[in-house]
Amino acid sequence: MPVIQYSQELVDLRQYESMPEEQRMEVFDGIAYNMASPSQLHQSILTELLVSLRNYIRKNNGGCSVFPAPFDVKLNDSPLTIVQPDLMIVCDRDKLDGKRCNGAPDFIIEIVSPGNPSDDYIRKLYYYKNYGVREYWIVDPQRKTVTVNYFENDLLNVPYTFDSVIKVNIYKDLYIDFSEIVKTLYI
């Protein structure tokens, strides 16, 4: 299902915060876009990745926090840009205010929706790179690929398949074995 533009008028933070909580949306340069509900496959992949990341951080007594969607990330105030990444790691706790992350998370994973792949591959890639996200993964269940973008070292669009073991570059010793994740999925 494609993402539908919510309004032609520019939205500010006050207007965004007054919208119904059950209405999932993102705002890019002041323009609000409705978000479709995620599929079962999307949520299964998200859960497996969340558990892997959370377990690693706990085991290593890390100072970072992992958050699944829906959790707002305000990248810019004017024009307003707020996204809800599928999964993120935030290491600077000063960015968290109880409502959202204010500024770029360190690590983001987006799981591609079949009706709107350009949102993750083009639009979000642009925003995440330009607003300071350190690492961005695009997990594509249709193609059974993971595209890694590690902006700090200019590693862009590095492709992997779902049978790969992939290094999380913001950590020195964290690897995600997608073949293990796939075993738990109905694909």
From TrEMBL:
Question: Is the keyword Ribonucleoprotein assigned to this protein?
Answer: no
Mention any Pfam family matching this sequence.
Answer: Uma2
InterPro entries in alphabetical order: Nuclease_put_TT1808, Restrct_endonuc-II-like, Uma2
List the keywords (alphabetical). Answer: Endonuclease, Hydrolase, Nuclease
Instruction: Look up keyword Hydrolase and say if it applies.
Output: yes
Q: Where is the Putative restriction endonuclease domain?
A: 15-150
In Gene Ontology terms, what is one molecular function of this protein? endonuclease activity
What is this protein identified as? Uma2 family endonuclease
Q: Which organism is it from?
A: Roseburia faecis
